[in-house]
Specification:
By secondary structure, the protein is of the alpha/beta class. The protein has a single domain, classed as P-loop containing nucleotide triphosphate hydrolases (Rossmann fold, 3-Layer(aba) Sandwich), CATH 3.40.50. It has a 6-stranded mixed beta sheet with strand order 4-5-6-1-7-8, with helices on both faces. Helix 4 crosses helix 5 and helix 6 packs parallel to helix 7. The N terminus is likely disordered.
Amino acid sequence: MRATRWRSWARRGPASRPCCTPSPGSSAPTAVRCCCAASEARWGPPAEGWGRIDDLGENRLSALRRKRFGFVFQFGQLLPELPAEENVALPLMLEGVPRKEAVARARHWFAPLGLEGLEQRRPGQLSGGQAQRVAIARALVVEPDVVFADEPTGALDQRTSTEVVQLLTFATRETGAALVMVTHDADVAAHCDRVLHVRDGRISDHSQFTVA
C-alpha cells in the first residue's frame, strides 16, 4: 500500500482511533508494518524526540517501536512458558527495568482489564478473551503513544470480540494513546472514529464517525 498516504491518516493526533479495513487482496499485516516503520516501504514525519522516521537506522527504529508503540496481534503472541504477569512485564524487562519492578508495574493492569486473580496463569490456562486482555495489558504497560492492533479479535467468537474491542478502545482512550486497528470485521471497525477502506493496496475511501 502507499505508506505516505496511510501514515498521513494514522497521525491525526492524540487519542485518534483510525481503522483500516483491507480487501481480501490487501494485507492487514502489511498495513500495520507500514505504520510502525517495520516495512522497507518506509516514510515518515518527525517522531517527537527521534527525528524523521525514514532517517533512523535499524537500532533506532527498533528502540522507537519498543518505547513508543504497543502491539496487539490476532493470536496474542504470548510466551507459553511465562505466567501472565511476566508476559505483560516483558517489554519493560527488555528495556532494562528490574524484574521485580517490571512485574509490579504489570500487575497494575490486571484489575482494570478484568484479569484480577489470573496473574500466575500461563497462556494455555487462559481463555481466548483472557489471553487477548493480557496482550492488551502488555501493549499498554510501556505507556505507548500509539497502539497498533492487527486483527485483534480475529480468533475470537462474536461476544468475546465485542468485549475485547470495547476494552481496547476504552483503555487506549483512558491512557491517551492513539489506536490504529486493522480488521476485516465491520462491527469491530464501527468502534473507531475513522475507517479507511483499502483496495488493491490503496486507500480507496474513508468514513468518519463520532464515537463516544
